[in-house]
């Protein structure tokens, strides 16, 4: 939430043509009673892109899934993995793992309403529910809805006692448990998530499951995404360089600036692009100190690039 917005996804798409991109979690209430266009709008260049929903009312979720299909999303995903107190109070996220029949009914209502795939993302357990039988009861019950794709974060979630941040690091990872689901339910598509940091790790995990989902590592170190097409999809074209990605992102940022988007709404997503390289700290500092200012334009980005790219002058100049 608050990270993979449309600007972030456009930037990511410049790094990989094939990876499926997911929106931040959007609650059903935000779509029903809020600024629907703000949450559903995306650039066609982002495709393939999936809308991730948060909610527990079957009819509300079905209505939102229908909007997702109408807007052109490739997939609708129900989040049953977020451990935030904010979403628990709304009966959203990981707390739903305690109510598999409710999740089944929600998934069924969405599946009946749309033709695009409806998928679910969940943990391997919550609180004291950490037995394999409990996990499989959740999976098998939800599968009764017709859902065949399960994205499994290979950590349990402690809804009491750990913060959302701690829930992303403290509970131990159990990749073998996710692999076991695939072995025992070979008819289901099982996608693994949690703590994955390298493409080599992805290839190793893909020997046991159908797919891998990366979140925080891609955000912190986005250049990792530039190797996905070659390493995982068999693309023979060379991966884009950081400078090529920025050359492609600059026209998008300029067009958005002309629509009234603030520069920092876009540049906050590129801060990790040069992670680990000489000048990376200056790149981040220049953007962080200037992109939020009133009237900030692409000159800020040019100045930041000059700190890390000897060929930064090859970029198109701001209009």
From TrEMBL:
Task: Name the UniProt key words of this record, in alphabetical order.
Answer: Flavoprotein, FMN, NADP, Nucleotide-binding, Oxidoreductase, RNA-binding, tRNA processing, tRNA-binding
Binding positions (FMN): 52, 121, 153, 193-195, 215-216
Q: Which PROSITE patterns match?
A: UPF0034 (PS01136)
Q: Where is the active site?
A: 82
The prosthetic group or cofactor this protein requires is: FMN
Question: Has the keyword 4Fe-4S been applied to this entry?
Answer: no
According to the UniProt entry, what is the EC number of this protein?
1.3.1.91
Which residue numbers delimit the DUS-like FMN-binding domain? 1-305
Catalytic activity, per the record?
A: 5,6-dihydrouridine(20a) in tRNA + NAD(+) = uridine(20a) in tRNA + NADH + H(+); 5,6-dihydrouridine(20a) in tRNA + NADP(+) = uridine(20a) in tRNA + NADPH + H(+); 5,6-dihydrouridine(20) in tRNA + NADP(+) = uridine(20) in tRNA + NADPH + H(+); 5,6-dihydrouridine(20) in tRNA + NAD(+) = uridine(20) in tRNA + NADH + H(+)
Site entry (Interacts with tRNA), positions = 79, 165, 168, 281, 284
Source superkingdom: Bacteria
GO MF entry, a single one:
tRNA-dihydrouridine20 synthase activity
Name of one Pfam family that matches: Dus
Q: Which family does it belong to?
A: Belongs to the dus family.
Job description of the protein: Catalyzes the synthesis of 5,6-dihydrouridine (D), a modified base found in the D-loop of most tRNAs, via the reduction of the C5-C6 double bond in target uridines. Specifically modifies U20 and U20a in tRNAs.
- Quote the protein name from its UniProt record: tRNA-dihydrouridine(20/20a) synthase
The species this protein belongs to is: Gilvimarinus xylanilyticus
List the lineage, top down. Bacteria, Pseudomonadati, Pseudomonadota, Gammaproteobacteria, Cellvibrionales
